[in-house]
Structure formats: C-alpha cells, structure tokens
Amino acid sequence: MDNIKTPFRGLIKDFKGRKECYKQDWTSALCSGTSILAPTTYIFFASALPVIAFGEQLSRDTDGHLSTVETLTSTALCGIIHSIFGGQPLLILGVAEPTVIMYTYLYNFAKGRAELGPELFSAWIGWVCLWTALLLFLLAIFNACTIITKFTRIAGELFGMLIAVLFIQEAVKGVVSEFNIPKDEDPNSEKYQFQWLYSNGLLGIIFSFGLLFTALKSRRARSWSYGTGWFRSFFADYGVPLMVLVWTALSFSVPSKVPSGVPRRLFSPLPSESASLQHWRVIKDMGRIPPVYILAAIIPAVMIAGLYFFDHSVASQMAQQKEFNLKNPSSYHYDILLLGFMTLLCGFLGLPPSNGVLPQSPMHTKSLAVLKKQLIRRKMVQSAKECIKQQASNTEIYGKMQAVFIEMDMTPSQLVIVTEELKDLKEAIMKSEQGKNADEKFDPEKHIDAYLPVRVNEQRVSNLLQSILVGASVFSMPIIRRIPTSVLWGYFAYMAIDSLPGNQFCERMLLLFITPARRYKVLEGVHASFVESVPFKYIFMFTLFQLVYLVLCFGITWIPIAGILFPLPFLLLISIRQHVLPKLFHPHDLQELDAAEYEEIAGVWSHSRSFKFKDLEPIHSGGKVGEVEICDAEMLDELTTSRGQLKLRSLSFPEDRIYQRQLNASKGETRSGYETNKESQVDKNGEMLQTVKEATKVLRITKGSRSELCSKA
Q: Contact at 8 Å (CB) between 380 and 372?
C-alpha cells in the first residue's frame, strides 16, 4: 500500500541516482581505449545469433509476416535507445523466445478472425503494444519493482527450464520439418522429390547435431589441455559463431548434381523488399481495427506486460549481482518506464518488442569485469615494478599499488571499503618481506591476480556499439540467408543444453535417478551445498513440486488460445513461494533449496543430513538399501588401465625420488619408472603391496574374466 500512496518515488530515486554517474558512463569507456572492442564483439555475437534464430522461427510461425529483418531491427533500435537513455547500461536487450511464443499465439488468433486476418495482424498487435506500454507505465509509476526481491531462485529456474524445453521442442520440430514440404511450395519441384527431400532431411540431421556437438565442445575450450591460453579463451568466446560459419561453409560442399535448395536455407526478405517495408505504415492501419478487438487486446497485453516485467527485471538483476561489486545504483523502475516507451514504439512500427535477455546481460557484465581487471592489473604491476627497481620497502610498494587501484577504480570516497578489499594483498606483500627463500618473495606478475577484487567497467559504449553492429547486420541479409535452417535448429538445441549447467532444478532431477547406495559418488565430486544440509526426502519433495509446476506451465503453451496465459503461473509462483511453501518445508531447508547464491562444496567423503549410510564400509553389489555399493570389479578398474596395466598412484612426487632418478641417470642406470614406482609403493604401504602383487600376478598370468580378477584382488 505504501508504494501506491507514493507514486513516482522509485522513478525519482532512480533518475537522481543515474544522473550523477551518467557522464562517468561515457568517460570511463574512453579511458579503456580500443580495449572496449573485445567485450563489444563478444556480446555482439552472443546477441545476434539468437535473434537470427528467433527471426527464422517467427517467419515460420507467422507465414512470413515477421522475419529476421524485424527481429534484428527491433534489437538494434531498442538497444541503441537503452544504451543512451537507459538506467542500467549493462543490460542487453533483444527479441526473446517468450516474445516469439506470444506473437505466434496472437497471429493464430488474428488469422482465424475474418475481421482481422493476416492483413491486420500487425495493426492489431500495435494496439496490444499500446495497452502493454500503458500497463508498464503504471507498474513503474507505482513502484512495482520493489517486489524484485521476491523473484527467488525457484521462479528463475522454472522459467529457464521452460525456455530450455521450448528450445528443444523447436529444434525437434525444425529437424522433422526438413523431411517435409514447406507450405505454399510446389510439391512437383525437383528438390521436393522423395530422394532429394530425404537427402535434405539427412543433411539436416548431420548439420544440426554437428553444430550442437562442436558448439558445446568449443564453449568449454578454456578447460582444454591443448593450445595456448589465448587460443583457448578465443575459442571459448567466439567458437559458437565460428562453428556456425564452419557448418555453413560445409553445406556448400554438396555435389553439383544436387538441386538448388538442398540443403534448405534461411528465408527472409531483404530490407529493401516490399515485404519488409510494409511494416513502417502499420500505424495507419490501426484505425481499421474494430472497437471490440481494441478492447480485447487488453487481455494479451496484461500477459505480455507481466512477462516483460518479470523477464526484464530478472535480466537486470542478474546483470548487477552483488558478486560483481557494482558501484553505480540500480534503476529498475526507470528501466521499466523506458521499456514501456520502446514497446509502444515497436508496436507502431510493426516490430516485435525487445526486452532484457538472459544470459547475454550477465555475460556482458562478466566481460567488462575481465576488461576492468586487466586495466587495473596492468597499472598496479607497473607501479610495483618501478618501486622494486628503486628498492622501496614493501610498505611503500603496497601504498603505491593501493593509490593506483583507488585512482583506476575512481572511489576515493570509499577508502575504508577499498582498504578492506585489499587486505589480503597487503598481507601477502608484508609476509613476503619476512620470507628468506626466493619463492616467498612477492612477484607482482605472478601473485597479484589472486588478490584483486572484482571490478566492472560500468559504461555505455560497448552496449551502444554492439547494438549498432546488430543494426548493420540487417544489411547483411544476403549473407545471413545462406545459413542452412538445420544449423539454426542445432543452435536452438545448443542454447537449451548450454543453459542447464548451474540450474539446480536440473541437477536435483538428475539426483533423483541415483540409487541410495551410489549417492556417495555425489559427495566425492563438486556438489551444491544443499546436498549435505537438506534431508533427501525434502530435496525430493521440492524437486517434485518444481517438476509438476513445469509440466503445468509447458502444458499451457499447448492450449491454442489460452496459451497466451503461460506467464500467469510464474506471477502466481511469487505468492505460492511466500505463503504455501513455508508451511511444507522447514525454513532452513527452504532457504538452502531456494537460495539466491549458487554455493558449491568441494568433493569429500563426509556425513550429511541428506545421505545417511548405515555403514561406511564397502559392500558387494546387491547389498541392503542405504549401504554403500562398491563392486570389486569397480575397485580393480580404478587400479588398472583399459589394457590391463597396473596404475600406481601417489599423492605427491617426493624430492628424494627426483634426486634418485637424476643419480640413476648420471650412472647410466636404465631401470624403468614402473619398477621404481612399485618399490616406492612397497616402502609406503606393505599391505597395499600384497594386493598390488596379486593383481599384477593375475594380469600377467591369466587373461580371465573380470569376476576372476575381482576374486584374486
């Protein structure tokens, strides 16, 4: 009630807060120089590819009335407006999957009404956007964004899982469509003959799964063991668009005898064609809409306003997580107001509106955090080296580095906070002064990375530049149209699978399929904190509730007309979380399962409230429920390679063994490392030696079955 009684309070606060740092949003980018281009290109590819895919989906679902031209134009236009006038410049805008779903429902509704039809679809959507904008204005004016804290993990994870399921659905539908003849096409055409239609479908499967596999591999390039650090980072950041180019190039390697149109490629009108130009006069046709349908447009407008309010606020929240240590204030109310103006503008132009998108928004913040850290690190290391050359004391070195950090961070008024954040760095420098060995001396090049706090280069230029690049992509449609549609279906599947890591709902569903006797494997690896702190039955109940709710939301999307109501369950979930779930779960357990932070625990064998074992001693498979199930063959598999060679594992490589090897090498001795390792194992554990010898004897003498090896071991 206080929010309703004090309208404009949030807007005024947001405007004053962002006004103070508006000039800094531009000057801080200029200080970065050309380094700002790296996060710009990175976020451009991350933003443009989904928009192209959604444009193809819209083109299919609206019979070509909307296409990639409209999605790219909307993303560029809204991105430019938000980067200049928006409150939170780190927020990335784009046409998202929920918008595509809503427009599909509205098109099917309009197509089935004689008073509207496909001809007046865009004009009627203009009225829907008008009502949506008015609702967003009211939400901003009456401080509705104060409930942003009630959007907990359960709502975000359910929404993310629903979008992932819809991505998979779209990918499957797309691959299946490669075997079918598109609408309004001549079935007597050569490319639609059975053999070529079947070939197109097989090529579609190859390109879809090929893009999916290579994109997932390249996304994890930073963990590769091969290549330099720069190469791995480059491949992790730009590998996905590179794979789209590679598979597009491979699609042109088909034999020349294959008819044109196999494989099938993206279809979209060029910006200069009449199909693209007709949207600019939508506002003229809005007067032709019957009054009853103007009023009926309020119903989908309520759903779209709620959807945009939820999606936009969550994306903004993720872009300014507390772990990023942002200095500038948030601007939820003002950004919702600006979103209303952009929705109104897109409706009048016949474009699908853009809103804050995930995961591009937090990806943008993360890329700028890396950039800021590089800039600060470079100057701090330079100042430290100058002090070392002058043989300054460690106190002077730290003082100089602290001054550089404050200057680069532009936070002289927050000296107390900065001093606390650099506390570990100060201790490391002072401790090195007492070190006697060279290894204990503080080396700024090697040791500074571990002690630098996270800082983000909060500015508007990268968002503005990437939006301009997206707009320039509209004029690259002749090149974009060469992308095979099957590559886009693979990209849909990639977006779905890539969004699952970090989603605890997905991890808990997988946990349900692990038998009680094998759950110790979860504790051995890196796992979420709730695994040890929450009893398993409550984990099961909470996960089952989410699963049922997900099925309900997904089922609503299949209802022909009522499908526009799919955002409603997510809005109701706020009330369910506040009033129903606390009655079913202990407050501690609910807090752990619905925590805002993603907390992980390193893999150790430990007792937990979740996994209670009657006996920690290993037993043979087939033991009682609740006991640890470890097969003898499984233990032997860990002791031997796939060729049957025995593996001898130690926790470290002692210096005396290094010295012994060097001594043996100097004497010309040629004993194998295998024998040396085995003798060292004898000295450490005589009992283990007996087991090793038995296993070795079995491996050398007999090549029996696995069960025979287990009995010997």
A: no
Which of 146, 141, 106 is closest to 304 using CA atoms?
A: 106
Q: Which amino acid is at 394?
A: N
What's the Cα-to-Cα distance from 52 to each of 64, 69, 244, 632, 697, rounded to whole Å?
A: 14, 8, 12, 53, 62
Q: For 151-210, give the secondary structure using H, E and C.
A: CCHHHHHHHHHHHHHHHHHHHHHHHHHCCCCCCCCCCCCHHHCHHHHHHHHHHHHHHHHH
Rounded Cα distance between 201 and 169, Å, is: 17
Both tokens of residue 371? 């950039």
What is the spatial distance between Cα 516 and Cα 536, in angstroms, rounded to a whole number? 10
Helices (H), 289-422: 291-296, 298-319, 332-349, 360-389, 394-409, 415-421
Q: DSSP secondary-structure letter at 619?
A: B
- 367 contacts 50 by C-beta, under 8 angstroms: no
- CA–CA dist 191, 196 (Å, integer): 6
| Cα–Cα nearest to 471, from 87, 69, 195, 34 | 69
Q: Evaluate whether 557 touches 92 at the Cβ level (below 8 Å).
A: no
CA torsion sign for 321, 327, 329, 335 is negative
Task: Show Cβ contacts of residue 147 under 8 Å, excluding neighbours closer than 6 positions.
Answer: 574
Compute φ and ψ for 393, nearest 5 degrees: -75, 165
In tens, the pLDDT along 615-659 reads: 334 444 444 444 556 566 656 666 666 566 666 655 454 555 555
Q: How far apart are CA 505 and CA 513, in angstroms?
A: 13
Q: Please state, in angstroms and rounded to a whole number, the distance separating the CA atoms of residues 60 and 66.
A: 9
Q: What is the dihedral of CA 111, 112, 116, 117, to 10 degrees?
A: 40
Nearest CA to 265 out of 58, 478, 62 is that of: 478
Q: Average pLDDT, stretch 173-181? A: 92
β-pair type (527-528, 600-601)? antiparallel
**695 or 440, which is more confident:** 440
CB 132 within 8 A of CB 301: yes
| Least confident segment among 116-120, 207-211, 548-552, 641-645 | 641-645
Instruction: Tell me the C-alpha distance between 292 and 114, whole Å.
Output: 13
Mean pLDDT check: name the lowest of 171-180, 361-370, 445-454, 587-596: 445-454
pLDDT at 571 over 70: yes
Tell me if residue 528 falls in helix, strand or coil: strand
- Helix, strand or coil for residue 355? strand
Concatenating the DSSP letter of every residue in 69-127 gives: HHHHHHHHHHHHHHHHH-S-TT--EE--HHHHHHHHHHHHHHHT-TTTTGGGHHHHHHH
Rounded to an integer, what distance in angstroms lies between the CA atom of residue 127 and that of residue 119?
15
Q: How far is CA 706 from the centre of its chain?
A: 43
